[in-house]
Each structure stands twice: as C-alpha cells, then as structure tokens.
Amino acid sequence: MNKDSVDYELLNDIVRCIQEVFEFSKDAFETLSLATDINRELGIEGDDANELMPEFFERFSINIDNYDPYRYFVPEGYDFFSFRRSKDRRGKIPITLGMLYLAARAKVWNTQELENVEFSPAPLYNCTSEIPLEGYKVNDK
C-alpha cells in the first residue's frame, strides 16, 4: 500500500491520537511512513502501548476480537511469563502506522490481513504545512 491511496483526514486523526499519548520526536515526520513500526521506530512500547492501543480502538470504533497485544508489544519491566508464551506472542511482530490506518478504515483488527500487507516506506509528509500537528517540520522536498 502506498501513500497515494491514503485518506489523509483519517491518517491525520490517527497521528493526533498517537500524539495525545506519545510525543513524537522533533524529526519524526521526516521519515514517518505507512511502514513506520510504532514500537521500534517511534518507541511506543510497554505502558505507552497499553495507553495508546485502547484509546485508538475506542476512538476509531475498531472490533478487537482478533487483536493480541503480546504479538506486537513487550510488557513494561521484566516479563516473567515470556518464556511460556508461543514465539508469535513475544512482541516481535512489527505494528506499523499502515496497520493502524487500515484497521481504522475497516473498523476491525484483522491480524492475518494487516500483517500481510506491504506498506510503502515513502515519507507521508513532504512539507511542514502538511503535518497535522503544531511545532513539527520537515525539510521541504
């Protein structure tokens, strides 16, 4: 999926939702793409993820019957039970901005479908005026 097929009104709402829970770094929008891993690249993990994901699901009315946080996030602190979880439940699977976007658009978290989509790494914002938040900038391209 590439950025040309994105509904920026919905995407910008998702970006605002993330911002309410987690402050983006000053240069985050230089490279923010549908392929951005919100855990590893933005640093949203543990308690931040536990705050963000329920807010995201509620705000966008997403059916989460198929969502398992342990697939994407490692709990805060030491996880005593990680060795007992199957390998696909140890927080190793990337959760991307594109996955959040597609889930918000479809109103359902379909794990298999979302994890199999290839997202474009092309930056979503090409100039500062496109960024939906104040105080951030990108070098105009």
UniProtKB/TrEMBL annotation:
It comes from the Bacteria. InterPro entries: DUF1493. It comes from Pseudomonas syringae. This is DUF1493 family protein.
